[in-house]
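User: We ran a pulldown and think these components assemble together. Before we commit to crystallization trials, I'd like a predicted model of the whole complex to look at. Sequences follow.
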Amino acid sequence: MTIIIALLMATLMPLGFLYAIKAIDFYQTGNLKFIAISGVWGVIAYLLAAQINPALISNGFASRDMVLRYIGPIIEEVLKGIILIVLIRRTEFKYFLDGAIYGFTIGIGFAIFENFEYVLGHSSVAIELAISRVLSTNLIHATGSALIGIALGLARFDRSRLSRALYLIGGLVLAITIHSGFNNMVNDRVALLFAVIAGFTGAGAIALAARRGFKDEESWVHEKITDTEGVTRGEAEVVQRLDDVNQLLAPLAERFGVEKASQCEKFLFVQAQLAIQTKMMDKLQDENMRRALEKQMKDTRKQMDVVRRQVGSYAMLYLRNIFPDNDPTIMNLMKSRIEASAAVNKDKVGTGIWDLNDRLKINQLKRSFLFQGLSDKALDAIAQMVREHKLVEDDVLVRRGETGDSIFMINTGWFKVVTEDANGGELIINKTGPGEIIGEMALLDEAPRSATVIALAPAKVFELKKDAFQEILDQRPDVALALINGISSRLRFSTTYIQKAIDWSQKIAAGDYSFIEYTQQQNSKDAESDADKADQLLSAFFQMVESVKAREDDLKQRLEKLELKIDESRRKQEFEELTGTDFYANLKAQAKKMREQRIANQDEE
Amino acid sequence: MNQGKIVSIHSFRGGTGKSNTTANLAAQAALAGKRVGMVDTDIQSPGIHVLFGLDENKMGNTLNDFLHGKCTIGEVALNIGEHAADSEGRVQLKGKDIWLLPSSIRGREISQIIREGYDVNRLNEGFQTIIKELNLDYLFIDTHPGLNEETLLSIAISDILIIILRPDNQDFQGTAVTVDIARSLDVPNLILMANKAVPKYDFDDIKKKIEDTFNAQVAGVLPLSFDLADNASGDLFSLRFPDHEWSKALRGVADAILEIK
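Assistant: Here's a predicted model for the assembly, 866 residues in total across the polymer chains.
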């Protein structure tokens, strides 16, 4: 019975260490198949060593002491390391974190079977032996091969064969040294406590190294996730905060169920792995390895698509919007809750403030031409995604030239759509109000915002992020169609607007300003048709023409002002100075004489 | 038969386009079949030769030589129709009776005449002589801006005085004094010409305002033109670009001169 207990302890405790080390592999880059291979190889290495070591002694090649202290560690570490040299070529072996885990597994596999040999061979002290071995020798075995694994993992990204070989040799020498040092210490019969300390020190160092490897990977994920193919912005944001994944997904689990949440989790981890693979592609030098990685990335993407489908679009929308750009402040939250409950109380009794708030949003969303045709269920999902903003007069909703990643639906209030004229003045090109959509153009063509939109009075809008919007467009052709209709009616308005602008410009060119008065009359009426609306909007522009005309008239007046500036006293003074000289008197007399003479000459002829 | 007329072109300030106007007016007169001479009396900063493509080597004797008694006035006159009808605009002057009496562009000779001065009476005699020798209908005198002794002389002996002004305050003030002087010296014909008028103004209005202010005929309001500036004084603009607004207005001024009996 004690034997069985001892054997169980000798097996399960090392596996416990392995589990602890494996937990460091947060992104699960380590491959379970490879871990199994490593474990099995550890056993094989043990079996080989168990043949070789005694043979060396029995052949008289070396003394038992010699084998125990030096030759044994060399043979055992080399044997254990062989499989790592094979595994390192594979894409499943990503970084030294994986190397540490695979190596650790080999050591543990080796150690468990070695434990069996010792426990079975010393049945009287089986349990004590099992415990002391597990805490010391087993950890040293695991440490040794983990070191080799780490060295190989580090060598992976090195270009030159020589330095890769040096990494391997370095790791091997280190492993052998530690192993041999430990064996020497044990052989010299130091207290068990020191052996245990040595074992834990080794394993602790490996755990720290593995942790370091994880930190590197984490930074790669953060670096690469935003430009990893197939990962949307909202998703990337969630992946970047995977460290508290359970907390992240708690609300999702509540709404969509635990199974959905775990699918989401898997989805996020696949994305993180894809990000790590993307980074690896940057780092890997070896062409063969790069090709293999490329293939694996393809598989990862496929896997991601599979999981994405499992998660489904509405849960996915929710997932992507776990982190809105600006988290609402407590005050806003309070206010909207109070408002929602106040609004709802007027209607029927609800089940809870939040549900009713959603209900309210659904009703408001329905007012937009975009969402009119959607079912309540679909609207419910959209209502989860939109955020409400409140604006006061003169608040800028979108600014011309900025890149936008949201569309807005006006809930209440009116906005002016403005652009700049050549002098930097504000030029109103449209006005828009409840139910209208703003900013969809920038999302579709990815060009900067085409105009600035400013609140004319206090207003409320719903904001919908690009990801969510595009997901809806993907899922709902009727929404896409409504969008096209909306854009086409806007285009028709633009055509009317341009036509008017051309007509009136031609009138101005012909010097006919009479229509300006007419447009000002129009301005006071309610616009009914596109043409009326264009009249109104353009009237502001053509009022500028009037001021231009006034300026032109003013310029024409300037000459008159110049003329007035002749200084008559200066004129007189200068004239007197010039004519007051003898030279001038003489000149004048000569000139007179000359002219008289010429007239006389002419008369003669 | 009428004796040749002396046409002085004057402006109170530099930069009014005086040399350019003189050369183009003279060329227009020559094109109209008149016998025409041009004298560059802007001895301190001669410029008209450029419009006829002349440089130091192509010029023979200069007005400076005449004033220092080194040659006769007749030896100064260079026949443009013969020697300088070598550009797209000037080629139209081939065979026409048009002469230029240039000032020296040699720095040493310019500084000498500024230092020593010259006898304005000799200049006057030279004018009379060349009119007779070449049997000129018109002698155009490109004067130095401002009102110094030789300018006063050329105003005094003019049959026609053309005062160029830009429509701005400073030119108005200076032009007013020049007009007074011309009247005091009994110049028989006084013509005003506005040049470099900014096109945004109403030209008819400018004309009227100048006429009202100076009580004199305004023969033309010529626009400020980048095309003209771009020509960089390399050719006779009114010959090369006869359809340009500036050229049309200049011909108006030339007509006003030719109309005077």
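Strands of chain B lie at 5-11, 36-40, 78-79, 98-101, 138-142, 160-165, 189-197, 217-223. That may be worth checking against your pulldown data before setting up trials.

User: Thanks, that helps.
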